[in-house]
């Protein structure tokens, strides 16, 4: 009996021992594979946004609160970010995985947690793919969620350029200087819709590219002086009011760059003439002036705002300002009599999508309907927000208001009053 | 010839799932799609053959008193090996099987074969029995999974079937559908097998009566 028990113990222990040895041998083989697979799963979302990545390494640094993680692909295909953003709209914050390649373009955005309207997340992912730091034509930011998304990506880009150790391309640097070059040049979404225009004949070689915002309120030029690439902001009249290198160092007052200013200004007239002719034609069409010959261009100085033209016309001075309405460029014209009273108002251009407003409300010359009549006889000093009666709740009314404010400023400058 | 019979026994006459009604829990749990059923079947097959082999080898060494703990340790060893290998090489199937993979340890088919067959038969027969039972289990699982996946999800091993995709019965992939298909399969097997279920339950009605010594022992005791 005793013998039997002893045998049982020995056999069972031996079996356990052998099994344990076997298991440890197998584990020796599989453990590293399992660890690698788990790491890969953890990086799965990262791999999804950066499909060419081989191995991720965390980038260390003090990140803003929305950037929870930044990882560098050791294979060199780019960087992956884990972002979190509260939209202040729903309880659950957005959780985003973002891949940015070495050129600063978004390879893919993956919204991991999205508590808002179902299905929208995929639309946003598609919108952000392939965009760069300027985020042109992505989301307008009309909702909490789009704002949160946009901000989170913007912050990720800040971190990207700070920590990724990647030089921005000249084009990117130039685009980022749009705000400085064209303080009034944003479109309705607050981004910069610039169109590159063909270099007119006779433009000096130092000007390598000319961009114009859709509103036509000036020009952004890329110039070159020696080896230095320069960003040049030119107002609608062809006056340079911004000059810097691509790192944003102000060079406007630097005598060494006087030549490039001359070059930039000499590039404008041919473009300007065409623009100017179309503005005058519109004024004739809308009945502000009787014939094109009546308008005499007034140069009101190097102010880069929405005012694109000032003309002496019969019975006063006409100010034309452009801004971006809902469907496109909004262009308005105010005529001030010599005593400062507004005598004529017209909308020269209005988005085609809601053209009925142009005819009904804003559109016609004073005396034909209610909206322009409000201005009749008022001066820049007597027009208040109450008389303007534009809350600015829509893109177009905001644009109308912007135009008025800039015309007011231009009027005050031309008439020696301090702009308020 | 006898070996052939042993092999076919597991596949048809004593199919562990559809005739012996063993291993019902994993059968219902992992047959929602064919891929995980195949993984489960293969894992159980490997464990069955392996444990049958080892237990048969050790059948004269293992003392009767500690045979169940010994079987469990051996089976658990094989299950853990399968689990580690699957985790390392087939992570997706590993994920899909989840806890049911580790639960092969207590799968009564395996312990049943160890106790009923491997502990009493020679190595070669035991391996053949393991292969037969393994294939039987695998086939039953696959049959069930294919039915559930094709008609429940409109796909076959993850590949979509164009027409069925739009006209499937999603309930088949959930638990009630599992029981339903399981019942249908058992009914079909009973219908087409020559052996009719006995009205009375007892050792005579058991499909394993031939290998199990209980009846014989009792008769001898009488």
Structure, explained:
- The complex is a heterodimer of chains A (420) and B (222).
- Chain A has 420 residues and is of the alpha+beta class.
- Chain A is 36% helix and 24% strand.
- Chain A folds into four domains: 1-42; 48-163, Enolase-like, domain 1 (2-Layer Sandwich), CATH 3.30.390; 171-268, no CATH class; 275-414, no CATH class.
- Chain A contains eleven helices and 15 strands.
- A five-stranded antiparallel β-sheet of chain A has the order 1-2-3-4-5. Chain A has a five-stranded antiparallel β-sheet with strand order 6-7-8-9-10. In chain A, strands 11-12-13-14-15 form a five-stranded antiparallel β-sheet.
- Chain A is elongated and about 130 Å long.
- The model of chain A is unreliable at 358-370 (pLDDT under 50).
- Chain B has 222 residues and is mostly helical.
- Chain B has one domain.
- In chain B, 67% of the residues lie in helices and 2% in strands.
- Chain B contains eleven helices and two strands; from the N terminus they run ααααααααββααα.
- Chain B has helices at residues 2-13, 24-29, 34-57, 67-89, 91-97, 99-102, 108-118, 123-152, 162-166, 175-192, 214-221; strands at residues 155-156, 159-160.
- Chain B has a two-stranded antiparallel sheet.
- The two termini of chain B are 33 Å apart.
- Chain A binds chain B through residues 4-5, 7-9, 11-12, 15-16, 19, 22-23, 26-27, 29-31, 33-34, 37, 41, and chain B through 58, 61-63, 65-66, 69-70, 73-74, 76-77, 80-81, 84-85, 87-89, 91.
């Amino acid at each position: 009996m005793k013998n039997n028990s002893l045998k049982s113990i020995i056999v069972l222990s031996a079996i356990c021992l052998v099994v344990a040895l076997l298991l440890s041998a197998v584990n020796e083989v599989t453990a590293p594979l399992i660890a690698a697979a788990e790491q890969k799963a953890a990086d799965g979302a990262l791999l999804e946004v950066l499909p060419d990545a081989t191995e991720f390494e965390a980038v260390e640094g003090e990140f803003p609160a929305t950037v929870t993680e930044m990882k560098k692909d050791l294979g060199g295909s780019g960087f992956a970010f884990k972002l979190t953003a509260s939209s202040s709209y729903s309880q659950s914050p957005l959780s985003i995985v973002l891949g940015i390649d070495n050129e600063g373009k978004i390879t893919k955005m993956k919204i991991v947690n999205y508590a808002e309207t179902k299905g929208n997340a995929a639309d946003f992912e598609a919108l952000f793919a392939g965009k760069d730091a300027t985020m042109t034509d992505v989301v307008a930011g009309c909702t909490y969620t789009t704002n949160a998304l946009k901000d989170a990506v913007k912050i990720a880009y800040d971190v990207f350029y700070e920590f990724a150790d990647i030089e921005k391309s000249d084009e990117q640097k130039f685009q980022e200087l749009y705000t400085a070059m064209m303080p009034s040049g944003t479109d309705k979404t607050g981004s910069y819709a610039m169109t590159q225009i063909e270099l007119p004949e006779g433009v000096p070689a130092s000007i390598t590219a000319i961009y114009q915002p859709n509103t036509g309120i000036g020009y952004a030029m890329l110039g070159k002086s020696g080896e230095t690439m320069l960003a040049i902001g030119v107002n609608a009249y062809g006056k340079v009011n911004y000059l810097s290198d691509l790192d944003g160092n102000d060079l406007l007052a630097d005598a060494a760059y006087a030549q490039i200013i001359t070059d930039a200004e000499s590039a404008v007239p041919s473009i300007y003439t065409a623009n100017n002719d179309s503005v005058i034609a519109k004024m004739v069409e809308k009945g502000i002036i009787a014939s094109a010959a009546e308008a005499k261009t007034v140069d009101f100085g190097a102010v880069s705002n929405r005012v694109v033209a000032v003309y002496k016309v019969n019975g006063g001075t006409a100010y034309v300002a452009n801004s971006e309405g809902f469907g496109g460029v909004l262009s308005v014209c105010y005529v001030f009599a010599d005593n400062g009273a507004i005598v004529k108002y017209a909308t020269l251009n209005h988005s085609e999508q809601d053209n009925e407003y142009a005819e009904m409300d804003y559109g016609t010359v004073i005396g034909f309907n209610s909206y322009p009549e409000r201005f009749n006889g008022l001066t820049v000093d007597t027009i208040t927000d109450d008389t303007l009666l534009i809350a600015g709740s829509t893109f177009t009314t905001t644009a109308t208001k912007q135009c008025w404010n800039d015309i007011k400023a231009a009027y005050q400058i031309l008439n020696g009053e301090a702009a308020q | 010839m006898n070996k052939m019979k042993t092999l076919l026994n597991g596949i048809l006459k004593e199919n562990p799932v559809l005739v012996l009604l063993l291993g019902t829990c994993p059968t219902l749990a992992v047959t929602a799609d064919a891929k995980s059923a195949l993984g489960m079947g293969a894992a159980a097959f490997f464990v069955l053959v392996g444990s049958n082999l080892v237990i048969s080898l050790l059948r004269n060494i293992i003392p009767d008193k500690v045979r169940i703990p010994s079987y469990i340790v051996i089976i658990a060893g094989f299950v853990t090996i399968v689990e580690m290998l699957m985790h390392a090489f087939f992570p997706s199937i590993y994920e899909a099987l989840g806890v049911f993979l580790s639960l092969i340890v207590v799968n009564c088919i395996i312990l049943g074969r160890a106790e009923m067959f491997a502990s009493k038969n020679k190595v070669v027969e035991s391996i053949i029995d393991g292969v037969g039972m393994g294939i039987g289990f695998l086939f039953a699982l696959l049959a069930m999974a294919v039915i559930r996946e094709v008609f429940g999800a409109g796909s076959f091993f993850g590949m979509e079937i164009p027409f069925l995709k739009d006209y499937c019965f999603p309930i088949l992939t959930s638990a009630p559908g599992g029981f339903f298909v399981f019942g249908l399969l058992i009914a079909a097997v009973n219908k087409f097998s020559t052996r009719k279920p006995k009205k009375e339950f007892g050792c005579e009605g058991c499909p394993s009566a031939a290998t199990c010594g209980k009846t014989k022992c009792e008769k001898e005791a009488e």
